[in-house]
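Reopening: structure tokens for the acetyl coenzyme *A complex, inputs below.
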Amino acid sequence: MADKASLTIGDRNFECDILSGSAGPDVIDIRKLYGQAGVFTYDPGFTSTAACQSAITYIDGDEGVLLHRGYPIDQLAEQSTFMEVAYLLLNGDLPKQDELEKFTYTITRHTMLHEQLSTFYRGFRRDAHPMAIMCGVVGALSAFYHDSTDITDPKQRMIASHRLIAKMPTIAAMAYKYSIGQPFVYPQNDLSYTGNFLRMTFGVPAEPYEVDPVIENAMRRIFILHADHEQNASTSTVRLASSSGANPFACIAAGIACLWGPAHGGANEAALNMLREIGRPERIPEYIARAKDKEDPFRLMGFGHRVYKNYDPRAKVMQKTAEEVLDRLGISDPVLDTARELEQIALKDDYFIEKKLYPNVDFYSGVILSAIGFPTDMFTALFALARTVGWVAQWNEMISDPDQKIGRPRQLYTGPTQRDYVPVDQR
Ligand code: ACO
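Re-run output (same inputs, fresh job):
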């Protein structure tokens, strides 16, 4: 490809550099365009705009490829621990044995919350959505950990990152315990990251909790599959919020707020609700027809993706995990039968083929989480827990990027032009 792109506006010609990454489409560098040509570019939803450079995650949406620091997601989901993936995303390479031990030790030594934070929980209504609690409590961390908020110091940034990764399972489990009126269960550091989370969620102080290895493994996969996904809406939110130099804990709370939406992290909850509403395979055609009807706002939840125009590679691992978990728990769930059948029908339907709509990561994850015993409103909280690793990795990368600037999108103004104030009795 040429190394310059030219743009003609009327009789004026402008040249922009073309930059290449290590994979993926080249980008046209328009940073000087406004200064030279006096025009902005228009791209709502950033469908054609690279807002940053990043070396963390690569997605080829047409081919259904997802790589973290070069490693395919299916290899990581099958072979690595969540601690290895967290280290990889944060530091750039898989850890050697001693590095992994040190990292795991550090994370487990940050799992407890400042005791006073438990009083925050008591301020919430018992029926509060766990994401509302997560937003509030994670934002409140900024009032507790003052020794890790100098973002210009890489050491302090790493401590804040470790704290966030370590405390998020405790925060999410406490949100659940609070909602069902059970006592909080403190972390137990000799368990794995996921084993500890399961115990804090489903254990009670009155008796020992045995971690089931199949469920622990399913949670490990789910956490790895959700750990990062390059510049998605919540990660971009974290980057934009942090671009002003804001407190890291508050910025992660902003990411949680964005993730809560049904078009993003809330989709697995919505997908399971939809599958339950469909109820049985015979009703699928009715819902497929609704999804295709332009007059009907209904969409097949768990289908389609902004970037993947092929099978989401994470959905394949999820499907396998769903089968394993239901088999282990001896559950025969009509929702899984409905999901399998719906997938088969949609994949053969012209509407879905033409629009390249395939199951995404959320299509099967709800079936698994519900079988494990999580209520649907905890699903997005689990996603936030796992995605925290990606958020802090992207945040660290952004702060250390010399090209980093405060994020300040421009606009195409369509409101009234200047007019004079009219006193209220003359309007
Ligand atoms: N069901 C039916 N039709 C759909 C669906 C769907 N799930 N998704 C997209 N389409 C159609 C749209 O109606 C549109 O049709 P048109 O071109 O005739 O207008 C076309 O496909 C393109 O859709 P857009 O909304 O423009 O695509 P976009 O890339 O903006 O949306 C999104 C991606 C938001 C994920 C969308 O596919 C969707 O709403 N899916 C359901 C929600 C969901 O599962 N979200 C999870 C995303 S993954 C994640 O966050 C982890």
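Residues 263-264, 267, 291, 299-306, 355, 357, 360-362 surround acetyl coenzyme *A (CB under 6 Å). The chain has 18 helices and six strands. Marking as resolved unless the reporter disagrees.
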